[in-house]
Specification:
Elements (H helix, E strand, L loop, with lengths): L4 E3 L18 H10 L9 E3 L6 H4 L5 H13 L23 H20 L5 E4 L20 H11 L5 E5 L6 H7 L5 E8 L23 E6 L5 H19 L3 E5 L17 H18 L4 E4 L10 H12 L12 H7 L24 H4 L11 H13 L13
Parallel strand pairs: 1-2, 1-3, 3-8, 4-5, 4-7, 5-6, 7-8
InterPro entries: AcuC, HDAC_I/II, HDACs, His_deacetylse_dom, His_deacetylse_dom_sf, Ureohydrolase_dom_sf
Keywords: Acetoin catabolism, Hydrolase
Pathway: Ketone degradation; acetoin degradation
Length: 404
């Protein structure tokens, strides 16, 4: 394996929506401060990026939107100034002075990592600043200004990659990426998220399967509020591997919002860091099986920025690099000393949420599960049944065949 690429530029920390906004740049800083002493970043090749040009951003965003973001960044009267439109202003997407440059730099980082993979300079890359999956062609949404995930996929296509699979494990539906590629047969978008009945952005139903020439290339797995590790992983394994295998991608792009965790304040799923780590390992296995290891991993949401996000993304960095951490690994004392002044909650002592730090989640989640096999149906099983019925036939798969 070639040396993995890490996108890191301190200037990306200027993507700061201010004050008490839940998407706080400290989550990126604390991740690095945790990963470094654990040796996770050893062997990574770090790249930086200048802000994406207008021409590059226009691969996914309208010229009017880009010029409006620039103008708002330069002349904002206040963080909630609503005069610009395009979703800018207000508590979710406040205007801030470095808005254009920092968002365009994050986008450029994901694009540069994608190009490095397409050109054979690396097999794997990570941009934990990225994963801003809610941004649409002409408006900001859900804390996201420019959609770096979509721009990275476009960069891969521009480099000659013929099929890209995008898998999104954020608790929120990857609506911006889906909307930008829902009519493109070259891109499969798969999103597993909390049901739109209970969570923003209110999209991501199983019946959303793409349109036009892209009909069949959107797969959505809306799981009910309260879903835990075992049920979430059961849904993941019952849908994601089969769908991605059927599509036969040449590169895998994944989004790793850590907000499906049970402690996240903005959502209602019940995953642990251990369950999230299990998903990272499964996605790495898919990349090894299907794409020759070519894998771009992006960050995303996650709003328990001290207890959860740094551990989850440190595991992600370790898995991408092929040097996964034992979940029982102790948290370095220096990191705890730094974090203790930032929260009044008890800090974790290991890289695991489970008793004994074994990292072992319920085995039912590892092998997938199909509700027609005779076990008592649970709410998540209805979601599995619905998405397989809606999406699998369009991918040439039998929704009732447990081998798919």
């Amino acid at each position: 394996m070639t040396a993995p690429v890490l996108v890191w530029d301190d200037r990306m920390l200027e993507y700061d929506l201010g004050g008490r906004h839940p998407l706080h740049p400290i989550r990126w800083q604390l991740t690095r401060r945790l990963a470094e002493p654990l040796g996770v970043l050893d062997g990574y090749r770090t790249i930086t990026a200048e802000p994406a040009t207008t021409e590059e951003l226009q691969r996914c965003h309208t010229a009017d939107y880009i010029s409006t973001v620039r103008a708002a960044s330069e002349f904002a009267r206040g963080p909630e100034d609503p005069r610009y439109g395009h979703g800018l202003g207000g508590p979710d997407n406040p205007i801030f002075p470095a808005m254009h440059d920092s968002a365009a730099r994050i986008a450029a980082g994901s694009m540069a990592a994608a190009r490095a993979i397409a050109r054979g300079e690396t097999d794997r890359a990570v941009n934990i600043f990225g994963g801003l999956h809610h941004a649409h062609a002409d408006h900001a949404s859900g804390f996201c200004v420019y959609n770096d995930a979509a721009l990275a996929i476009t960069a891969l296509l521009d480099e000659g990659v013929e099929r890209v699979a995008y898998v999104d494990v954020d608790v929120h539906h990857g609506d911006g990426v889906q909307s930008l590629f829902e009519d493109d047969p070259r891109v499969l978008t798969v999103s597993i998220h909390e049901s739109p009945m209970t969570l923003f952005p209110g999209t991501g139903w199983a019946t959303e399967t793409g349109r036009g020439p892209g009909h069949g290339t959107a797969v959505n797995i809306p799981v009910p509020a309260g879903t835990d590790d075992a049920a979430w992983l059961r849904a993941f394994h019952a849908v994601v591997p089969g769908a991605v295998r059927a599509f036969r991608p040449q590169v895998l792009v994944t989004q790793h919002g850590a907000d499906a965790h049970r402690d996240d304040p903005l959502a209602d799923l019940q995953l642990t860091v251990d369950g999230q780590r299990t998903a990272y390992l499964a996605l790495r296995d898919l990349a090894e099986e299907l794409t020759g290891g070519r894998w771009l991993a992006l960050g995303g949401g996650g709003y328990e920025v001290i207890r959860v996000v740094p551990r989850a993304w440190t595991h992600l960095l370790a898995v991408v690099a092929g040097r996964e951490l034992d979940p029982a690994t102790d948290i370095p004392a220096a990191w705890s000393d730094l974090a203790v002044d930032l929260t009044d909650r008890r800090l974790p002592t290991t890289m695991s949420d489970l008793d004994g730090g074994t990292g072992a989640v319920d085995g039912r989640g590892r092998v997938g599960y199909h509700p027609w096999q005779g076990a008592a149906e649970q709410p998540v099983d209805r979601a599995i049944r619905d998405v397989r019925a809606a999406a699998f036939p369009l991918l040439g798969l039998d929704p009732l065949d447990p081998r798919d």
